[in-house]
Design goal:
Blueprint lengths: L3 E4 L13 E4 H4 L4 H13 L6 E6 L5 H14 L4 E9 L2 H10 L4 E5 L11 E8 L7 H13 L2 E4 L11 E5 L2 E6 L3 H10 L2 H9 L5 E4 L5 H12 L7 E2 L20 H8 L6 E5 L6 E5 L2 E3 L1 H11 L12 E5 L5 H9 L2 E5 L7 H5 L5 E4 L3 E4 L7 H15 L3 H12 L1 E12 L1 H13 L1 H4 L3 E2 L2 E8 L2 E2 L6 E2 L4 E5 L4 E6 L7 E11 L9 H4 L1 H11 L1 H5 L6 E2 L1
Parallel strand pairs: 3-4, 3-5, 4-9, 10-11, 10-12, 15-16, 15-17
Antiparallel strand pairs: 1-7, 2-6, 5-6, 8-9, 12-13, 13-14, 17-18, 19-26, 19-27, 20-21, 21-24, 22-23, 24-25, 25-26
The protein binds 1-O-phosphono-alpha-D-glucopyranose (G1P) and zinc ion.
Length: about 550
């Protein structure tokens, strides 16, 4: 079948952000919009002939239509084989797993992660390379440059394929394999964790847990692994059916949006363990009985105990965290004598370190934790890691966290988000802080004074690439730290994120409310940036 060349014109603003191109569904529905971006990817990677491509998404509104368009274009661009998840479904970590396992040259993942879905909500697309990880900045910048110059895209004239039946079909000269989206991933999990020990924990009746899939992509994964393979009671997974609009919810596993779960861990008869994942399955939130485990602590605790888990029994090569993530994991790495890397926000910065074998575990404060088993953060993996630790240590989650704090001290952490800000004033505020960094050093704010301040930049230790402007860091003389950055994933206005953390090793002060423990720092953060003055906001919209 000969490909059709369709004339097209560049669209404005197809610059990928922290995790690919995210826009409203209506933007993607404009004729040529998705096509241009996909052709820009294919032009940039320039190796389609004879290759295998993986396609899948989080099942949100427009997922199916987008997949049909992309399959026709991939066929026209000469791919030999396309692996697509049944029903168009592949969680982000599962896509990463499938790319790696089947020797694909890459994959296209359709998701706007934790952003709401539906006709008036968000959609997104990103490309992951043959290592299974998000395209590095050099590549995403090249995609963008292509979108500015694009004049034509390639497609073929063919009907939609049935994505609901597993099996093979032909699209032009391309073989389409509709695959079980769960199996490869579930097998990988089984190779990393002690399923026998976990099954014993989940079936001996005393331990009760709940996994909230938030009507997003992890439902089928959690059902297969927790309920089928590990034997947890039916109903352990709630909101398990992926819906195009996530049931009208906000598929973001935090204390605000996963309130149904939070309730189950905090009522009169609380469960022992709870967990949730986001729209595309790469984020995780874990909860103990009446107890929230901060993702920064979670990374540190998984690192400290990794050797108890079969997949990491031989020890870890090193760890990495995004810059705004608290320094809890640094303390563990120091004690274990392994390297700890501080990277800019976004999973793509872990890729080189993982590929080079410099790190085994990595994570971000934004509910992202992962390891070298794939090249994405992995929500369900983190949940299984916790379950395996609880089983191995025969301790409740809460005890594991407490004893970690006693051993290492606690890094209190919170993030304050100011959403939907006017983009210009948000930018101005950040620019002003940046311009005054020099004058900030040595300045006193009540009892605290500023020890150092900089604009975070990163030199990739593997390929030497430089990234600048990755967030403003202010260190205070009590060991506290304030970080300011603007979100790169929002689709409306600007979101200011203010990250605050402070170390405490006094055993009597390990159980405070983080907002209280960090109150002095929160005040300094407002005074330095003039958040209230610039934005008119008295309070953040979301506190995590
Ligand atoms: C947010 C998180 C970041 C994460 C990204 C993708 O990006 O802060 O850690 O990697 O989502 O899940 P941001 O909106 O802050 O740019
Ligand atoms: Zn996500």
């Amino acid at each position: 079948m000969t490909p059709t060349r369709v004339n097209t014109q560049p669209f404005e603003g197809q610059k990928p952000g922290t995790s690919g191109l995210r826009k409203k569904v209506v933007d993607f529905q404009q004729p040529g919009y998705l096509e241009n971006f996909v052709q820009a990817i294919f032009n940039t990677i320039a190796r389609c002939e004879g290759e295998t491509l993986v396609i899948g998404g989080d099942g949100r509104f427009y997922n199916r239509e987008a997949i049909q368009i992309i399959m026709r274009m991939a066929a026209a661009n000469g791919f030999a084989r396309i692996l697509v998840g049944q029903g168009g479904i592949l969680s982000t970590p599962a896509a990463s797993c499938v790319i790696r396992k089947h020797g694909a040259c890459g994959g296209i993942i359709l998701s706007a992660s934790h952003n709401p879905g539906g006709p008036t909500e968000d959609f997104g697309i990103k490309f992951n390379g043959e290592n299974g990880g998000p395209a590095p900045e050099k590549l995403t910048e090249a995609f963008y440059q292509q979108t500015l110059a694009i004049e034509q895209y390639l497609t073929i004239d063919a009907d939609d394929l049935d994505l609901d039946q597993p099996g093979s079909a032909q699209l032009g000269n391309t073989q389409i394999d509709v695959i079980d989206p769960v199996k490869d991933y579930a097998d990988l999990m089984e190779s990393l964790f002690d399923f026998e020990r976990m099954a014993a924990l989940l079936t001996r009746g005393k331990f009760r847990m709940c996994f909230d899939a938030m009507h997003a992509v992890t439902g089928p994964y959690a059902k297969e692994i927790l309920e089928k393979r590990l034997g947890a009671p039916q109903g352990t997974v709630i909101n398990a059916e992926p819906l195009e609009d996530f049931g009208g919810g906000h598929p973001d596993p935090n204390l605000v949006h996963a309130h149904q779960l939070v309730e189950l861990l905090n009522n009169d008869d609380p469960l022992d363990f709870g967990a949730a994942s986001d729209g595309d399955g790469d984020r995780n939130m874990v909860l103990g009985k009446g107890f929230y485990i901060n993702p920064c602590d979670s990374l540190a605790i998984l690192t400290a105990n990794a050797q108890l888990v079969p997949g990491y029994a031989e020890g870890i090569a090193g760890v990495a965290r995004s810059m705004p993530t608290s320094r809890a994991v640094d303390r563990v790495a120091a004690r274990q004598g392994v390297d700890c890397y501080e990277t800019p926000t976004g999973w793509k910065f872990f890729g080189n370190l993982l590929d080079a074998g410099k790190i085994t575990l990595c994570g971000e404060e934004s509910f992202g934790t992962g390891s070298d088993h794939v090249r994405e953060k992995d929500g369900l993996w983190a949940v299984l890691f916790w379950l395996d630790l609880i089983a191995a240590k025969e301790q409740p989650a809460r005890e594991i966290v407490r004893s970690h704090w006693i051993q290492y001290g606690r890094d209190y952490f919170t993030r304050h988000d100011y959403e939907g800000l006017d983009s210009d004033s948000a930018r101005q505020m950040i620019d002003q802080v940046r311009e005054n960094l020099g004058a900030l050093v040595g300045r006193a704010f009540g009892e605290l004074s500023v020890e150092s301040a900089d604009d975070f930049q990163y030199r990739d230790p593997v390929d030497g690439s430089e990234t600048t402007g990755q967030g403003i860091r202010v260190l205070l003389d009590n060991g506290g730290r304030i970080v300011y950055r603007l979100s790169g994933t929002g689709t409306q206005g600007a979101t200011l994120r203010v990250y605050l953390d402070c170390y405490q090793k006094d055993p009597a002060l390990l159980e405070l409310d983080p907002q209280k423990a960090l109150a002095p720092l929160i005040e300094v953060a407002d005074r330095i940036a003039g958040i209230n003055r610039h934005t008119g906001r008295e309070q953040p919209d979301v506190i995590t």
